[in-house]
Every structure is written in structure tokens, then in C-alpha cells.
């Protein structure tokens, strides 16, 4: 139990720090152990739907961690803790590998082809060798590159535009799809957008939330959809919670939707049942 006393030692010396920093320090150690053990971590999936056919078209992989003492830890906290340490690379690889393994299993059990969306963090994106690792993992799980979509935020892309352009080229050369997540909340310049080789824009949920009540959010949502289509990109809206939002997005030509109205993020086994139910019904 040397590890445990080491942690207590750390906590003892952190008394002068603020509580949040101390909590982070111990979460970091706990996450490191969780990655070694594996069983506290999971990848859940939220199904995405094509707006025209109403059929499932993809699923976003979202990391989940049930801490033995604290219970479920929010994904944004997990990623924050991992990014502040070197853990994000192991975590990112683990999420990718686990998501692809689940998808390969779904396919083997009769599920049709889907887009599997995986979030990539800023730190992961900056480190050399990401493209090669993703390609190797796809080959390992025999998943076609075209079935994987990596989600990047505008701020990740704008941090180092030349690096981003090169990496996006490499991914798209390998046949891997790319999406800009939380679109509209960052600082991407339209001038760069045309140079970023991406396939899809993901309208941020902050616009979708009030799309039927707030005129400005409706205008912005329509503008993103039109901008995307003009650039030859698909557009998906996230955070769809009501029938009215769903109907509105359909009426303005959005291509796909994701949100609690249609499906919550759920364990892989549950998602497979939903998906197989769908393909039987169709
Ligand atoms: P995101 O990529 O924008 O993911 C969408 C988030 O919105 C998810 O939260 C999802 O559960 C939530 N969501 C989906 N539909 C609705 C809805 O209708 N209403 C509302 N209010 N929320 C909805 P989650 O799982 O807590 O993840 C939060 C963020 O953490 C993600 O935002 C993403 O930035 C990050 N994240 C999650 N998993 C991973 C991961 O494996 N790797 C990395 N790098 N980041 C991840
Ligand atoms: Mg995402
Ligand atoms: Mg998002
Ligand atoms: Mg987000």
C-alpha cells in the first residue's frame, strides 16, 4: 500500500493549497489507478439520428468514470484532470480503443454501419504520432476509417493553425472523418474554416437550447447550417431536448441530431439493443 501513503503524504503537504487543487491532485492519482485497473472506467454512447430518415446514423463515445468513493465524475472533470497531467494520452488511447472494440462487437452482432464519433482533447491533438496511433487502432479492430469521426473544437484547431491544417489533411487522407464540436462558441475565423478539411459542423447546444424561443439563437443556428452546406459540409445539432427543437431543426435543413429527446448516453450493451431493435423494425 505504498501508493496510498504516498497520496496521503501529498495531501498533507497540500494543506496550504486551495481545496480544489488538493482535490485535483488526489483525483489525478485515482484516475491513474483507474486506468491501470480499467473497471471503473467506461465508454458510453449517445446515438445520433439522421433528420430526414429518422434512422440512427452514428453514436458519440463519451468517457464515464465511477470513482470508488465519489461516485460518477463528470466527463469534463475527468478530461480536465487528465489534461493537467500526462494521463490524457493514456485516457485518449483507452477511449478510442474501447469505443472501436464496442463498435466492432456491434458489427459482429448484426448492427449496420454507423459513424462512431470520438472526442479528441487539445493536449492529445498537439502530441506527435496521433494520426499513426489512430490508424493502427482502426486496423487492430478492423474498423473502416470512414466509420470513425474525430471531434475537435474550434479552439483546438485555432491554437496552431498550421499544425491543425496538416493534421486534418493527414486524417482525411487516411479516410477518417472530422467534425468541429461546439461550433459557434470558439474563435474560428471563416478564413481558416475553408482551409480546415472537415466533414461536419456540430452546432453547439447553447444555440439549440433556445432555438425556438430566442430569435438570435435561431438566426445563428440557421447561419451555421447554411454556412456548413455552402462549404459542402454536413451539419449536426447537439443538445436536442424537445419536439419543438427537433421540428425546427428539420425545417431549416439540419442533417442530423443528437440529444436527450432521442437518446441519452448509455452503456454499449444497451445501445446495441436499441440499434438492433431499429434495424429489425426497418
Ligand atoms: P461534447 O463533446 O460537446 O459532448 C456532448 C455533451 O452533452 C455530453 O456531456 C452529453 O452527455 C451532453 N448532452 C447530450 N445531449 C444532451 C442534451 O440533450 N441536453 C444536455 N443538457 N446535454 C446533452 P458529457 O458526457 O458530460 O461530456 C461533456 C464534455 O466532456 C464533452 O462535450 C466533451 O467535450 C468532453 N468529453 C466527454 N468524453 C470525452 C472523451 O472521451 N474524450 C475527450 N477528450 N473529451 C470528452
Ligand atoms: Mg463531442
Ligand atoms: Mg459538443
Ligand atoms: Mg461541449
UniProtKB/TrEMBL annotation:
<protein>
    <submittedName>
        <fullName>Diguanylate cyclase/phosphodiesterase with PAS/PAC sensor(S)</fullName>
    </submittedName>
</protein>
<feature type="domain" description="EAL">
    <location>
        <begin position="24"/>
        <end position="279"/>
    </location>
</feature>
Amino acid at each position: 500500500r505504498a501508493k496510498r501513503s504516498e497520496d496521503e503524504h501529498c495531501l498533507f503537504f497540500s494543506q496550504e493549497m486551495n481545496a480544489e487543487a488538493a482535490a485535483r491532485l488526489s483525483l489525478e492519482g485515482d484516475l491513474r489507478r483507474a486506468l491501470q485497473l480499467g473497471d471503473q472506467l467506461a465508454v458510453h454512447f449517445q446515438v445520433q439520428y439522421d433528420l430526414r430518415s429518422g434512422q440512427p446514423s452514428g453514436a458519440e463515445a463519451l468517457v464515464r468514470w465511477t470513482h470508488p468513493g465519489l461516485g460518477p465524475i463528470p466527463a469534463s472533470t475527468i478530461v480536465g484532470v487528465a489534461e493537467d497531467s500526462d494521463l490524457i494520452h493514456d485516457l485518449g488511447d483507452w477511449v478510442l480503443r474501447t469505443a472501436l472494440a464496442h463498435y466492432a462487437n456491434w458489427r459482429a452482432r448484426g448492427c449496420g454501419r454507423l459513424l462512431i464519433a470520438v472526442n479528441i482533447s487539445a493536449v492529445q491533438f498537439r502530441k506527435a504520432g496521433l494520426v499513426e496511433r489512430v490508424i493502427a487502432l482502426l486496423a487492430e479492430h478492423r474498423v473502416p476509417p470512414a466509420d470513425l469521426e474525430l471531434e475537435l473544437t474550434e479552439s483546438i484547431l485555432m491554437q496552431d493553425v498550421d499544425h491543425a491544417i496538416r493534421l486534418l489533411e493527414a486524417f482525411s487522407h487516411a479516410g477518417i472523418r472530422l467534425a468541429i464540436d461546439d461550433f459557434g462558441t470558439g474563435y474560428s475565423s471563416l478564413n481558416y474554416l475553408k482551409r480546415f478539411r472537415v466533414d461536419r459542423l456540430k452546432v453547439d447546444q447553447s444555440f439549440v437550447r433556445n432555438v425556438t424561443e430566442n430569435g438570435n439563437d435561431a438566426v445563428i443556428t440557421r447561419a451555421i447550417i447554411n454556412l456548413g452546406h455552402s462549404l459542402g459540409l454536413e451539419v449536426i445539432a447537439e443538445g436536442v431536448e424537445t419536439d419543438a427543437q427537433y421540428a425546427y431543426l428539420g425545417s431549416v435543413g439540419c442533417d442530423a441530431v443528437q440529444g436527450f429527446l432521442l437518446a441519452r448516453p448509455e452503456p454499449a450493451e444497451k445501445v446495441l439493443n436499441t440499434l438492433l431493435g431499429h434495424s429489425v423494425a426497418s
